[in-house]
Amino acid sequence: MNHGLTVENIKLVIECQPESCFKYFGERVSNARRIGDSDPSKTILAETYKLLGNSAYGKTLTNIMKHRNIKYARAEDVSNLVNDPRFNSMVELEDGMVEVNTNKQVVCWDLPLQIDFLVYQYTKLRMLEFHYDFLDKYVDRKDYQLLEMDTGSLYLALSKETLEDVVRPNMRQQFGDEWDDWFPAEACKVHKAIFKEQKAKNEVWDNAHCQRCRFKQQFDKRT
Fold first, then answer.
1. 141: helix, coil or strand?
2. What DSSP string describes 50-89?
3. Of 36, 70, 106, 108, which has the most beta carbons under 10 Å away?
4. Could you report the per-residue pLDDT of 7-29, keeping only the tens digit for each?
């Protein structure tokens, strides 16, 4: 809405008390994936938890209306199944057998759809914020080109070698100040001011000298 979006014709408003009911699960999945990123020997751990995380919320958006009852019968005995009002489709198999798909008589919507809708909508909102509140703010449009997007990732081409190289010169200081809002933090509290100063000067930041800086970058929530 800060960019001019107008919301009209609101039909329903539901008030709720937000709570982090799946916080433990989300942090466990994220931490396992971070460990796999930093230690190649733990790749199997990261991939396993990636599957667990994606399938956990993906299952909640299952289209139950597509579920079918499947029956098998001989071709000469299939007439009753085909004439059933709930008949959907039929597939001929070998040895005179057929597979008959019928719609379910009762469909029970018992999945928490709100979980998956929140995940996808919030992810897309964050991607839009990254484009309009970060890229457009700090980089001239002639210096970057969006290529493609996935659910939570964006691929773009730059006119120079690095993102820092295309930041508007008059906004480098603010760019360093807001770095942690968009990217994994690379400096601990002790070295944060130095990190911002180097970003403003477009100098390479090296956190190898500080274990706390490396830990901060590895386990920052934005990784």
1. helix
2. HHHHHHHHHGGG--GGG-EEEEEEEGGG-HHHHTSTTEEE
3. 36
4. 889 999 988 888 888 889 988 99
Give the pLDDT of residue 134: 92
Distance of CA 41 to the CA centre of its chain: 25
**Is pLDDT above 90 for 158?**
yes
Q: Which residues contact 101 (CB under 8 A, 6 or more apart)?
A: 68, 69, 70, 87, 88, 89, 90, 91
List the single range of 9-23, 51-65, 201-215 with lowest mean pLDDT: 201-215
Separation CA 158–CA 179 (nearest Å): 18
CA distance 82 to 104: 14
| Alpha-helical regions (H) of 130-210 | 136-138, 172-177, 179-182, 192-200
**pTM, 2 dp:** 0.69
Q: What percent of the chain has pLDDT over 90?
A: 36
The alpha carbon torsion through 184, 188, 189, 192 (nearest 10 deg) reads -70
What CA–CA distance (Å, rounded) separates 80 from 84?
6
- At residue 75, the 3 state secondary structure works out as helix
Distance of alpha carbon 52 from alpha carbon 58, whole angstroms: 10
Amino acid at 49: Y
Q: Which strands sit side by side in the sheet containing 68-74, from one edge to the other?
A: 68-74, 97-103, 87-92
Phi and psi angles of residue 135, each rounded to the nearest 5 degrees, phi first: -60, -55
